Amino acid sequence: xxxxxxxxxxxLQNILKFKSDQSQIKxxxxxxxxxxLQQEIQNQEIxxxxxxxxxxxxxxxxxxxxxxxxxxxxxxxxxxxxxxQEEKLxxxxxxxxxxxxxxxxxxxAKFQSFGSLQNQIKSVQEQMKQMLQYKVDQNYFDELRxxxxxxxxxxxxxxxxxxxxxxxQQDISQRFLExxxxxxxxxxxxxxxxxxxxxxxxxxxxxxxxxxxxxxxxAGRLKDIKHNSGKVITGLTxxxxxxxxxxxxxxxxxxxDQLGExxxxxxxx
Length: 269
Fold this sequence. Notes:
Layout: H1 2-20, H2 22-68, H3 75-132, H4 138-153, H5 158-183, E1 204-206, E2 214-216
Antiparallel strand pairs: 1-2
């Protein structure tokens, strides 16, 4: 069963990883669009350069034809103009050839990178198809739910609860003593801390399930009277000896669930 749990957890992690890979797919698509845009810009620049060179060549031919019609142009000047035209044409062809070679190299490099990008997109699409074909094992979740219900139905050991509460009580008592020792020189009190005070300023001793005693004050007001509706009373019993001053008030305070109730029984020695 533990192997099934690990397998299911790993499959769920793969599904979560697939969701996180969506951003990578979007980034790859954006890179592809940017690459196509750069290609269009470079093609347009080369076309503009060729158009400018063609315009210059046409202007030069027009000038040459206009000068050739004049009678004062000699054959030597025509030869010079023809050589200049041929040299300029060769330079133009060489420049176009260099531009085409450079463009071809750039295109090949970007085409290779775009090919690897397409392969990555295909691999991601295959992973998506595999994940979409995945089916959750319903029997496994039913068994897991039954196991959780079984664990929740197990009864709590009262001895373990008692030992845990004793440990908490001892830790609270120890911290209270340390805190009292730390502030003893700051407050002018009679060895004990007081949270509230009665009208007659009398102290009440509270017994706990430890050999130590804590002094505090209580208002002693009765807020409400209720009865137990659960028909079953569970909890811990505390038996201790306490010293009560004359004309004192005793009550039970409970901090916990809303349906909790506390009971107190006194015997005079």
